[in-house]
Amino acid sequence: MPNTYTYAWTPDGYKGKKEGDPVDYSGGSDFEKLRQDDRLFVLTLKNGTVYLLGAMTVGEVVDTATAKRLRGRVYAGKSQHVLAKQGTASGFAFRPVPNERLGEFRFIARNGENGVKLKDGRPNPQTLRRLRRVTDQTATDLELLLARSGMVPPASVEANKLRLLTDANAVNAAMAEFKKLGRTPFLKKYGYEKSTRYQIFDGRDHFDSKAIAGAAVGYQHPERGPLKHNEFSGGEATVVKKLEALGFKVIEQGPGIDWTPEENAAIVAAYFDMLGIVARGEKLNKAAHNAALRENLQRRTRGSIERK
Questions:
Q1: How many domains are there within the chain?
Q2: How far is CA 244 from the centre of its chain?
């Protein structure tokens, strides 16, 4: 799963940048930790205040010669250079980070977590200057701050918004509401269509993956609210990846997924079992048979089994 980092620029790092200019590159000397699809937030410290300058998703980390060939100009004295993944660079925004929010920032260290160190009542520049990995909650806070800056590029809006979902409990809450309301009322409430391919399976029931993810953001961030259906895309690379990273089982199903010989054999066996029950004059519980089948045929819904 991608990690999120902060890195602080000196004034020379943003000299000449205008608001809205792409934050698509940074030079440094400790970028060997960065991997493709990691998130990098750029900060700076001026007059005792921390400012958020922008962010990018890592495309690649290259040496000076490669960076010069690809960009033309690079920061002098830097041995490593990170280039943004296409379409993910935010615009440059000189936005102050509120002190109360800064105090909640948590960095991941060898001995656990720690916060921003203070020196004479001000943030210590050395705390921020080197590459620092942050916790999931701090990553979420940074994404929210960036979104409020108005400098998030359209091409990266989907990835940024889905990054807001980091809490499995929020997904469980959305699934509980799905069960309570029922599928149709739940989808109508949040404005989603039925999932045509990917569904969450909890061992008994199926849940529309995209709708659950969108609703879960609202549970985790009630002040922000749920994601609308047109704010992000579903599918294997987005929703499935996110839900699986949070520990949920997502299955592929739908009219485009052929039934396997094993699935067909299970359906036929269940059919003859039910015929035998009827022939013996015993009471048939079709719902129980359907539920038993779904435990083994996890890609199939109650309706698809009934239609089969």
A1: 3
A2: 10
